[in-house]
Amino acid sequence: MKAINLKGFGGVENLFLDEIDKPAPGPHQILIKVHASSVNRPDIVQREGNYPPPKGDSEVLGLEVAGTVESVGDGLSRHQVGDRVFALVGGGGYAEYAVAYEGHAMPIPENLSFAQAACICETYITAYLNAVVLAEAKAEDTFLLHGGGGGVNTAAIQVCKALFPKSTVMVTASTGKVERVKALGVDHVIDYKTRSFAEEIKTLTDGRGVDVILDHIGAAYLKDNMKSLALGGRLVVIGLMGGIKAELNLATMMVKRQKIIGSVLRSRPVPEKSAIIADFENNVMPFFDDQTIAPLISDVFPLSQAADAHRAMELGTHFGKIVLEVQ
Ligand SMILES: NC(=O)c1ccc[n+]([C@@H]2O[C@H](COP(=O)([O-])OP(=O)(O)OC[C@H]3O[C@@H](n4cnc5c(N)ncnc54)[C@H](OP(=O)(O)O)[C@@H]3O)[C@@H](O)[C@H]2O)c1
Fold first, then answer.
1. Ligand 1 centroid from CA 323, angstroms
2. Dihedral over Cα of 63, 64, 67, 68: its sign
3. Which are the contacts of 117, defined by CB distance < 8 A and separation ≥ 6?
4. Could you tell me where in the chain the CATH 3.40.50.720 domains are found?
5. Global pTM?
6. 321 lines ligand 1 (CB under 6 A)
7. Is 100 exposed, middle or buried (CB count within 10 Å of its CB: 0-12, 13-18, 19+)?
8. pLDDT digits (tens, 9 = 90+) for 68-81
9. CA–CA distance from 142 to each of 129, 137, 169, 186 (Å)?
10. Could you tell me the fold of the domain covering 123-262?
11. CA-CA distance, 204 to 202, in Å (whole number)?
12. Ligand 1 nearest-atom number relative to CA 320
């Protein structure tokens, strides 16, 4: 089968279309004929050699797929051959076929295309798990979501607004994306290129701060994130685009009874991911069914042009997700 492989770790020039063996489903797995996959920022980190797949998962890039069930392992009954499914995979998404654990695949809602369905798992589950479940979000919380136009962030905006219509959602975005983020129905957009988000949050909340921050910048934002957090606030760190080491004022954190939570989805054990996905399916998928939430596709590339898709993400002009059309 055709798949994107790596000549070595590093830049986009390492990505090439290769011919490799079709994977065989193991226990509790199904084989999916992939129609679409999508690019996530962690794929770039893996391409650079800094995010290896969990043991047992494919070395091929790609954390999510949408397609049709090609075959089903012995004794499995949730999905049938021919069903339209989308799935979270530990690797192997940039390929014509991928294996997924039965419990990591969900039926595609009738109103969604393969391309749209390939944009759900890695971003919406990450958004829900972190901004809602781990942050113990409540109906009238105030959220600060960083990185307005990105895959995870646009998903987080939709999830917070759908689950908590009475919440207040504040978002940071770069200058060129401010208007498009506003159009997603958020309460405030802060242009992080021209303003200090900590100062803006202080003004917007009358000095109170926000209840939940979803952050993927890490070190560079830690100080301002902690400044922006309310009494009892929760900061969930899911990415490190701004570095890994920073200083923390523990006294303030203690007195303000704040929590810092770190989380990754990919390396969790299979049953834990199944439980997270089941929870997501129950609580978030109904909003896709009734079209309250719709995946935002920025660009579509054929699988063979995965390098161009990575270039587009690195350029950062995308708004929402970058899709790879497989077949
Ligand atoms: N822990 C997990 O389980 C998990 C799972 C999936 C993803 N992630 C992480 O989540 C992050 C986002 O992934 P993605 O796939 O959504 O990538 P993406 O689509 O490229 O989004 C990244 C966003 O970061 C924004 N950004 C860059 N510098 C910023 C800054 N200084 N302040 C605020 N925003 C800034 C960019 O916004 P502008 O273009 O407006 O600058 C862009 O929209 C990555 O760090 C990824 O590793 C974590």
1. 16
2. positive
3. 36, 66, 84, 86, 108, 109, 295
4. 123-262
5. 0.98
6. no
7. buried
8. 999 998 889 999 99
9. 17, 9, 6, 11
10. Rossmann fold (3.40.50)
11. 6
12. 19
